[in-house]
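Proteins fold. Shown next:

***
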Amino acid sequence: MAVDKALVVSGVTKRYGNVVALRDVSFEVDRGEQILVFGHIGSGKSTLFKCIVGLARCAGEIRVYGEKELGRIQRLVGYAPQETALEPGWRVASVVRYFAELREVAVDVEKFLADLGLADKARSKIGELSGGMRRLLTVALAFLGDPPVLLFDEPLNDLDVDARKAFLETLVELKKEEKTVLVASHDYSPFLSHLDKVLVLSKGRIIDVIPPSGISKYA
């Protein structure tokens, strides 16, 4: 198995009881590629990301830079889920420290929050933040430890115009840094000028791998 591939997904199948959420999904992503995982609601996008980072058990094999042991994969992959499922009673600064400890990285919490424009929210509880602030924090936590592979599930949800623009500009910077990025979204339009190719998911299967210019037929 070539370790120059940033991500290799081979024959991944995920069932929830009698429901097949993913069926024999296989694809490869090169270092520095930026991929849109596109599909309508219920196509399996979020389940695929959860399988990659080990939040959902599945059949098949997943390797990140040749590593298949879950603990090593989790150190190589930063993940921002669709659901901002942070404990509402936790303080914002405590959440940052907690995730930094999970990833075994040092973090200047004050600077981290200042860079997000959330310096004045350090002592606030997660439940006191707006939906946009929670989304912003969730996306930012994926960057802790500077992982080489990043997964963003519907990253623009709840973000205002300025924050959406900032995220899309970040994709440009990540490309320069040769970070590998996968974005899952049912709305392809904001991403087309930023990403290299599109994986089209439907009913848990990859039905096409196309350049961004070809996506309109699946809209």
Observations:
- The beta strands are 5-16, 19-30, 34-38, 59-64, 77-80, 149-153, 180-185, 197-202, 205-210.
- DSSP finds six helices and nine strands in the chain.
- The longest strand covers residues 5-16.
